[in-house]
Amino acid sequence: MIYDWLAPALKQLLGQRGQLHHALLIHGPGGIGKSAFAAELAQALLCESPLPDGAACGRCVACGWFVQRNHPDFRLLTPAAAEEPRDTEAAGTDEVGRKPAGKAGAKPSRDIRIDQVRALERFTEVGGHRGGTKLILIDPADALNTAAANALLKTLEEPSGATRFILVTDRPDALPATVRSRCRSLPLPLPEPAVAAAWLAADAGVDVAQARAWLAAAGGSPLRARRFADPSQAAIHRVLVETLAGIPETGVMQAADALADIEPSVWVAALQTWVVDLLRVRAGAEPRYFPDRLERLMALSRRTGLPELQRLAARLDAAARSVDHPLNARLTIEDALLGVRAALAG
Ligand SMILES: [Zn+2]
After folding, report:
1. How far is CA 331 from CA 30, 272, 273, in A?
2. How far apart are CA 34 and CA 236, in angstroms?
3. Around ion ligand 1, which residues have CB less than 5 A away?
4. Above 80 in pLDDT, residue 98?
5. How far, in Å, is the centroid of ligand 1 from the Cα of 46?
């Protein structure tokens, strides 16, 4: 299944399947369906009787294996922490979600590790079981840690036989330049707002106005916005927005308590979008993420200086980078919130 807004890009790509580069780097904003796009592309490239337009037939033995996730010439590289790739947005819950229960120390890796890449070596050396394409999908590719990325380079450069790579990421800049330069870049854009709103309204069973509000809160990303339709997610989103809007009057400890059960990457991302909107409103632009909080954003942005907000944005960028280390989560929350209060207390 491919999302409407990505169908033209897939069609164009499959129309030239004979000339495709052996390593494609699919990138674009989070929550637009890149993982689904990559899976569809992978299935089409492995399909043994593709349709005239190059799409997967859905009926051959290769398509059957692919759907069952046991195609012998296909490998998916993804962090152990993700049963599904991070960007498998359709059913994902990790972006706006409660923290999974369990001890922090027992958390599976969020990295794609070097042993996972080494395990590919044998796969790429032997001939394909079906005598055709062998395909490796790496999603999200920015989860490759440095050692894993280095180990990948050689195979990526000189793949043996008909080995193909598809890399997927929200953050191409986070990949080593050595990996990027060996791939053909394939950017996918955000859908047009009208297209996304129509899809979301139909998919979530809401009116277009509600769909537009959710899309705004999700920065235009339809699959992120789709998650707001889930009642439990909507509740989390409300807590986030209320907490963010309450600072600086709300005390830092109280705000940190309110956010304690929410996945750190989620609230840091929300905090970053809140500050983006503060900067936008301060510059006289419309808020992008929280259009229904215009008044509060205006009141807050009048009380703070541009340098303070810019410093805060940089501080939050740093928090976003370190937030995956679970032992620091509470400290990271408090530090980020202290930064917000300092910038906004005027
Ligand atoms: Zn097929």
Report:
1. 27, 17, 20
2. 25
3. 47, 56-57, 60, 63
4. no
5. 7
